[in-house]
Every structure is written in structure tokens, then in C-alpha cells.
Design goal:
58% of the residues lie in helices and 0% in strands. It contains 8 helices and no strands. α3 packs across α4, α4 runs parallel beside α7 and α5 runs parallel beside α8.
């Protein structure tokens, strides 16, 4: 996952950021695949958390979308600690990325580690994935 060289332009699409346009999806493809293709053509700054979760869960656009997702998770974590709603789908998609994705973005991994350390009320299922993420990502030594 090569890191973007410049600050993220949230008005650009993944097709534009990557410098290559995906062709139209096959006619007989699933609704989820069609949705992924559609989301790639929307400005990344307009993507909702559940849409980011879908793309990240499919390993699409990680160099651009993981920073956005970590930002959302970081900004909403204090609300979770106060008993507010927290997006487990986005959290799950982010913490279940392969260690190589995090090795390519160590500062981002550090930010995510700090964020998940503040979460107190996540499902057992998501907690297991958080623990696996923490175990797989090298320490900050």
C-alpha cells in the first residue's frame, strides 16, 4: 500500500487518485460489486462511514481511505466512551486489514492503536479483531 505523496484531495474520486479508471462492472455481477464500482467514482470526501467500510473491507483504495476511516474513528471514539453510538462496521473493516497495510502506514497504525485503546464498549466479536490488530501491528518502540 504505497502512501499518497500529497495531502488527500477529498474532492477527487478513487479513480482519479489512483490514476486509473476501473471499467464498468460485468453485467452479471453482484449488487455489492456494482456498489464498489459506483463508490470508486464518488469523491472520497462524500463517502459515508458504511461506504468506507464496504470499500476498505474489499481492500479498495486503502492508501486514501484508511486515513479517512481512522480520522472518523478517532473523532467518534470519545462519544462512544460517553455511551454514544460507535460504528462497529467501520472499525471492523479497518482493524481486519492485513498487517502489510499497516506496515506501509506506521503513523496511521499508531493513531488507530491510540483510538482503539479508548474504546470501552465494543462487541466481543469486534474486541477479538481489535486484539488481533494490536498483536499484529509492531509496537512503537
Amino acid at each position: 500500500m504505497p502512501a499518497p505523496k500529497a495531502p488527500l484531495d477529498r474532492g477527487r474520486t478513487l479513480d482519479e487518485l489512483e490514476g486509473r479508471r476501473w471499467p464498468d462492472p460485468p453485467v452479471d455481477t453482484t449488487p455489492m460489486v456494482r456498489n464498489v464500482y459506483e463508490l470508486r467514482r464518488r469523491p472520497v470526501g462524500t463517502l459515508e462511514p458504511h461506504e468506507l467500510a464496504r470499500l476498505i473491507g474489499q481492500d479498495v483504495g486503502l492508501p486514501w481511505l484508511l486515513p479517512l476511516a481512522v480520522e472518523i474513528l478517532r473523532d467518534t471514539a470519545p462519544k462512544q466512551a460517553e455511551g454514544g453510538w460507535f460504528d462497529d462496521d467501520l472499525l471492523y473493516a479497518v482493524v481486519t486489514r492485513k498487517p502489510a497495510a499497516w506496515a506501509a502506514a506506521p503513523q496511521l497504525a499508531h493513531e488507530l492503536k491510540e483510538t482503539v485503546a479508548t474504546l470501552t464498549d465494543v462487541s466481543r466479536y469486534v474486541r477479538q479483531e481489535i486484539d488481533a490488530f494490536l498483536a499484529a501491528v509492531p509496537g512503537d518502540d
